[in-house]
Amino acid sequence: MTRYFSGDSISYRQIVSIIIPILVDQAFVVCLNLLNTAMISSSGVAAVSAVNMVDSLNLFLVNVFIAVATGGTVVVAQYKGSRNDAMASKAAAGSVCAVFLLALAVSLTVVVLHTPTLNLLFGKADTSVLSNAKVYLIGCGASYCGIATVEAVCGALRGVGETRSSLFLALTMNLSYVALNFLFINLLNMGVLGMVIALNIARYIGAACSILYLIKGNSSLHFQIRDVFRADFVMLKRILFIGLPFAAEQMFFNGGKILTQTFIVQLGVLSMDINAISNSITTLFQIPANALLLSTVTVVGQCMGRRDVNDARKFIKSFIGLSSLSFVLMFLIVIPLFSPLVSLFHPPASVVPTVFQIVCITGLSQIPVWSFSFVTPAALRAAGDSRYTSIVSMLSMWLFRVVLGYLLGIVLPFGVVGVWVAMICEWGVRGFIFVMRFRGKKWYQHHLIDN
Prior knowledge:
By secondary structure, the chain is mostly helical.
């Protein structure tokens, strides 16, 4: 541990204290999402398909908020590394302000334009699916300000290494969501409407707790609520220098995922069900790796705040290696549990073999390629190399995943499996490009903050 996860200014104990709460958070998020999908499956295939269909759009939008919040994480982490606590506090306030205003604008747009949006993207879906999707999309749009506030606060806390606090806030929101889902869906039989009521209550509980904690319970950031309402354009520029390219990347990247989702819609309700169940199960493989990805941003950001490139290089290699090993472990855990996991969704018997095929292909493919494709750009972004990572991600998505997904899934007779294979191929291409960037010197030559 000391050899791979200790440096001149940070020890492996500090790194472990950053990783463990994020790991617990990711485990809860994935498992609770799995449980929520299983709950809504009791309302029928149309409800599951509607939720999964709209969630592809939700992922597109929420990841834009997370992208801008990540800009805040990087700036806060670099100020923390340079031991400038006053500027770290201002960066946190600027992040909360920017993410909230963005979420408010997106929320109003989605609620007003929900019908043309669904007709444009998923107009070929069954009438019953579209009916449920309208209810779910309006409800999700109303909740965006809540989730955006939580993400901004948690991002700032991760920047200073307070991952336990971000874990507590995330758990408050997610456990509330599951409990309310059980009430509205299973006990009151309210279906998709019950799900969106639970979602809004839980996200705004989380937002209220997040702001209250920053003001009253936090000692690292010395957060002042008045700083949120004071426009510090220099600070916003630093946050958006990282956040905007990443947000653009997320828009194009997840836009490509939505387009591939429309390919699956063309294949029918059963293919949509296969995709929804496969998505839920394969995210289990990524629990430790996603925790390491988020930890990388904090650790590398603090290293670059001190201009310690050698430590940054060392930790990036260590995080990539550990992430790849985690996929081996998760594959050995998840595959034996496949039958009880898939039974949670009450699927038609005819779709189970295809789901198993997708889960196995994805689980094995993630071992050699996922970490290079996702952990590496997270580290480069933490060093300020946001523009390069965003351009590569956007181009690889549209030139490889979308084109190859259409070719394999629609033109050739591979169906939904072909769409997943195209995604895995795209991971490999972008992972190779990011490794080449990491081996050079340009990624660490950005000066995001004034030391």
